[in-house]
């Protein structure tokens, strides 16, 4: 039996270096193999000092995607500076686990259309679709979920766009075992099934996941 891949996934750090350090300490304590950061590393694209370095100083492998607060240029800069991987539109493999992602941001300054979101996820998935286990990583959660309904109730307006149709379409088409997301702070910690995919809003507190 192979060893399970142990992941610490978190999002919405928003430039909070103290939180980044706490998460990095947790990554060491929990002996994770990989850290996945699900976007909104910065606050309104301000310099992200002390957000990635706590993990790399502890020799943790890091994957990231941008969120609605992060420009694509900022995400690329961080990956080059710290020697980590940005999986926005791409994928990576760890033994028999494939991980692919997209920001899936459909509002704000750095938004994509729903069709662009789907195509970027399709591109990443195509490289790892043969693997036994598959993880999708997005910043924005899918539509038609408890997360979306809870956020609409919290905001008091069901017409506000808080989730992505492109992500929902990708889940149903590619059937990943797991979807990791964040973005909706009020829905942090919710996990649910969409078709047969486990969807987890890992939020700022983060979540330890084994697959």
Mean pLDDT: 95
Helical residue percent band: 25-40%
Compute the number of helices. 6
Task: Write down the oligomeric state.
Answer: single chain
Portion of residues in beta strands equals: 15-25%
Could you name the ranges where pLDDT drops below 50 across 5 or more consecutive residues?
A: none
Q: What's the total count of β strands?
A: 11
Keywords:
alpha/beta; single chain; 6-stranded mixed beta sheet; globular; 211 residues
Question: Can you put this structure into words, describing what you see?
Answer:
The chain has 211 residues and is an alpha/beta fold. The chain contains 6 helices and 11 strands. The strands form 2 sheets. A 6-stranded mixed beta sheet has the order 5-6-7-8-10-9. It has a 5-stranded mixed beta sheet with strand order 4-3-2-1-11, covered by helices on one side. α4 packs parallel to α6 (165-174). The longest helix is centred in the first third of the chain and has 13 residues, at 17-29. The mean pLDDT is 95.
Give a brief rundown of this model.
The chain has 211 residues and is an alpha/beta fold.
Break the fold down into its secondary structure elements and pairings:
Blueprint: E1 6-10, H1 17-29, E2 34-37, H2 53-56, E3 61-64, H3 72-82, E4 85-86, E5 91-94, E6 97-102, H4 114-126, E7 133-138, H5 146-155, H6 165-174, E8 178-181, E9 191-194, E10 197-201, E11 207-210
Parallel strand pairs: 1-2, 2-3, 3-4, 6-7, 7-8, 8-10
Antiparallel strand pairs: 1-11, 5-6, 9-10
Helix pairs in contact: 4-6
